[in-house]
Amino acid sequence: MQDLIIRLAAPVEHALAWLYSFWPAVAGVVGITLAVMVTLHVAQHKRDARAAAAWTGLVWLVPFLGAALYLMLGVNRIQRRARQLTGGGIDAALRAGQEQGTPLQTDRLQVLARLVGRLTRLPLTGGNRVTLMEAPEALDAMVRAVDDATESVYLATYIFGNDAAGRPLADALARAHRRGVRVRVLLDGVGALYSLPPITFRLRRQGVSVQRFLYSIAPWRMPYMNLRNHRKLMVVDRALGFTGGMNVRAGYVAEPATIQDLHARVEGPAVAHLLLSFAADWAFTCREELNDNFAGDMDLGTVQARGVNTGPDADFDKRRLTIQAAIGAAEREIRLVTPYFVPGQTLLASLQLAILRGVRVVILVPEKNNLRLVQWASLHALKWLAKEGAEIHASAPPFDHTKLFTVDGHWVQLGSGNWDARSLRLNFEFDLECYDDPLAADANALIDRKLSRARPLADADFRAMARWRHVRNALAHMLEPYL
């Protein structure tokens, strides 16, 4: 053995000596090769020219580290992995259905409905009843629905706090499980950590089946830190749905509340779209195929509705295109309530064009955001819209997490998606688009109540802002692709 070691030592010593002498050249060749390979991959797979330029510059200016970062954060593996897990069956289910030719209020809305139908490959369903609910009322309604469940409860959410809001819902889920109801809970891998100990411990102790989306305790096995499942939806007995922007957190039920939010109770065939979305995410996460056949009534109301499932996979860019099309369909008024408004140049230009067409644009954002950097970037974007004539309002605390978008008193969009790069390009989101005048009237009445308590931000207010604040906001807005 000693002789073998001696014989091997000489070649190894020569190799190390060679590397010591020529390592700069070797490192240069390897670095250039990696940079060329990444550049070619970026050129073929990045549709956003800004992202392509940023990644290309990074891999050339920061050798090795830039390539490693691109491998971890820049390559989209989600679509490929989802297809491996589901065999394409879920994709086919999500594309099922034919677009209905139901007459809508205006020709522009008819075009919008046709466009979103082609984007989502889902039908615009009639016969729905959609009830808007503030967060405390929605949490109570969800607990009651779980207690009334007889067959199944499917719940997906980003944050499920182990707190005064989460524990009553967790206990209701446990009671349903003990009754023999099929209970499935899907939490985001990062969102589940917002409260410690996480609610998963409580649920699992009581036998509830709970999974975490894109989660691993080992950091090197979790290369998807920036791809989060932000959807919030619940389906009971494959017939009753809840969706919107509400997490399950104690801030909604505190006295006084520290967060405001909006959710919706959905009844009718549109619940099938919530069901399909959950079934796809559940199959992706744990390979279990669920019964995704809608089992509810087909005619319960006047709302025509459709789910808009979006994410950095096969559904990439559908949300941005839907929003842009809705802005283009507006003839009189656009109303937007969002906690995070950093829309990117394309949507910003679409809103500016709407204003120039004579459309009234009303935007309501929180006066004090829970994400300071986002607030600064948002103020920079809003400054240009205020200059064009948009009506900007800042809502006083508590922090308003509501996500609501209406057009012309006919069309409503609500759901989990924000107006920022994370929601538009990185997160998995679920929104519901609705065509119904009474529902739009309810949504606008809710917005009116919020506006009555908000502070207007006119162009003069932005111009009066200190110079250093403008610089700070502009620098924050430069991070728009990452916010």
Could you describe the 3D structure shown?
- It is built from 17 helices and 17 strands.
- The chain is an alpha/beta fold.
- The strands form 2 sheets. It has a 15-stranded mixed beta sheet, sandwiched between helices. Strands 7-13 form a two-stranded parallel ribbon.
- Strand 14 (404-407) and strand 15 (411-415) form a beta hairpin.
- The chain is globular, with a radius of gyration of 25 Å.
- The termini are far apart.
Distance between the termini: 59 Å
Shape: globular
User: Which percent bin holds the helix content?
Assistant: 40-55%
| Poorly predicted spans | 80-101
Strand order of the largest sheet: 4-3-2-5-6-8-1-9-16-15-14-10-11-12-17
CATH topology of the largest domain: Endonuclease, Chain A
Mean pLDDT: 86
The CATH superfamily of the largest domain appears as Endonuclease Chain A
Question: Per DSSP, what share of the residues sits in E-state strands of 2 or more residues?
Answer: 15-25%
Number of helices: 17
Indicate the radius of gyration in whole angstroms.
Answer: 25 Å
What is the number of E strands? 17
Computed structural class: alpha/beta
CATH architecture group name of the largest domain: 2-Layer Sandwich
By CATH reckoning, the class of the largest domain would read: Alpha Beta
Report the sheet with the most strands, covering strand number, pairing sense and barrel closure.
15 strands, mixed
Number of domains: 2
